[in-house]
Design a protein that fits this description.
The complex is a heterodimer of chains A (105) and B (142). With 105 residues, chain A is α/β, with parallel strands linked by helices. Chain A has a single domain, classed as Transcription Regulator spoIIAA (2-Layer Sandwich), CATH 3.30.750. Chain A contains 3 helices and 5 strands, in the order ββαβαβαβ. In chain A, helix 1 runs parallel beside helix 2. The longest helix of chain A is centred in the first third of the chain and has 18 residues. Chain A is globular and about 35 Å long. Chain B is globular, with a radius of gyration of 14 Å. Classes of the chains: A alpha/beta (105), B alpha+beta (142). Chains A and B meet through helix 1, helix 2 and helix 3 of A and helix 1, helix 2 and helix 4 of B.
Chain lengths: 105, 142
């Protein structure tokens, strides 16, 4: 798993690339926490998680996403999930993640 | 093993780095049934959930090993994954969506739910000598 991020039109966009499972979860957790803290000081902070290159995800990924939401909801950060692959999309849909992190393309 | 047309068995160290290896091995073995991309993804996710359970819950990070058996019969794949860890107190409860004993660790509690959704059958039981076995199967549609 590799995460690269950059500001685009006042929004932070993080590109996740690789497999998102228990083995990579800690890296994703720490990386996203750093990114979220970085943007917490700007107005209406938005974080777009580009999932187009996430080739695998299981329920561990869901736990990490829920964890980020719970940890940072008081900071009013809006999070979105962009272009997940079909299988990952199914898991995100089934577990209701899109209710808190809407899907965009 | 006579009941299977073909099978493989392996024992692997209960280490997180091995998760990807186990699911790729199982997926590679299933290729002989010509599964669709979506069926392969379903199987990989289910295997990953079962192996994560062994490492995170069964052994809680302690040393141990995981036994994997994959068999094929009549276009159906049978997967058995066992550990010798602490076992599960209440299996019925553990199988409920969003139930987790490790909420503080940001667990989703969706592991068994995903296994159940992505496979045709799922059986979970505590072994007589300790640990848990998960048995699941999926028919590969022609």
């Amino acid at each position: 798993m590799e995460i690269k991020y950059q500001m685009k039109d006042n929004k932070m966009e993080a590109m996740l690339k690789g497999e998102f499972d228990e083995y990579t979860a800690e890296y994703v957790r720490l990386s996203l926490d750093t990114i979220i803290k970085d943007i917490s000081c700007i107005n209406n902070p938005q974080l777009i998680l580009d999932f187009s290159l996430v080739s695998f995800m299981d329920s561990t990924g869901i736990g990490v996403l829920l964890g980020r939401y719970n940890k940072f909801k008081k900071n009013n950060i809006e999070m979105f999930i962009k272009n997940p692959q079909n299988h990952v999309d199914r898991i995100l849909k089934m577990t209701g993640i899109y209710d808190i992190m809407p899907k965009i393309s | 093993m006579e009941e299977f047309e073909n099978y493989f068995k392996m024992t692997i160290d209960a280490k997180l780095i091995n998760e990807g290896f186990v699911r790729s091995m199982v997926a590679a073995f299933c290729v002989q049934l010509n599964p669709s991309v979506s069926e392969i993804s379903d199987i990989k996710t289910a295997v990953s959930e079962a192996v994560t359970n062994c490492i995170v819950h069964g052994y809680s990070g302690k040393k141990g090993c995981i036994d994997v058996l994959v068999g094929l019969r009549d276009s159906t794949i049978y997967i058995k994954i066992s550990d010798a860890g602490i076992g599960i107190d209440d299996i019925e409860k553990a199988r409920q969506p969003f139930f987790t004993t490790k909420a503080k660790e940001e667990r989703s509690g969706m592991g068994f739910t995903l296994m159940e959704s992505f496979m045709d059958t799922l059986k979970v039981y505590n072994n007589q000598n300790g640990g848990v076995t998960v048995e699941m199967s999926k028919e590969i549609k022609v």
